[in-house]
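Most newcomers find our protein records easier to grasp once they have seen one. A record pairs a protein's sequence with a compact description of its fold. An example says more than a description, so a record of this kind follows:
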Amino acid sequence: MPSFQLSSTMHEADAEVLAVHCSDHRFQAGFYEFLNLKLNLDENYDLLVLPGGPQCLTLVEYLPKFSWAGWKWFRYLVEAHDLKRLILIQHQDCGWYKELPGHLHTSPEPRQRQEQDLRRARTALVRERPELSVELYYAGYDASQHITIEGVAG
């Protein structure tokens, strides 16, 4: 087996942030740029990446085992690393959302469904951990494939 010597080094400082986003390969560079350069996290955050991202925190009715796992990972990371801030990111054209039944949301419009889930996740997270700061974001792209990330209110 080959061995690879990397230029990266271990972070010594404790992380205070957990970022949760989708695993869609099309957005990874944009998520990385946003977290490290726009939010100035300097690669010092815990990261939970899975299909649908933070939607796993809202699947109680539809996929309870997925919800259980999402909450288990969230609780572990927050408690083990004494995290203070959560960053939840959804994105345009998410394949995971295309597979979900429409009856789980009040809107047929994909972005509204994702923003509804972000707000549901924040409500549940703050109820369980009121000391946490929870930020919601939505990533989209334009005709030239440039990514924009916007804050989600409410």
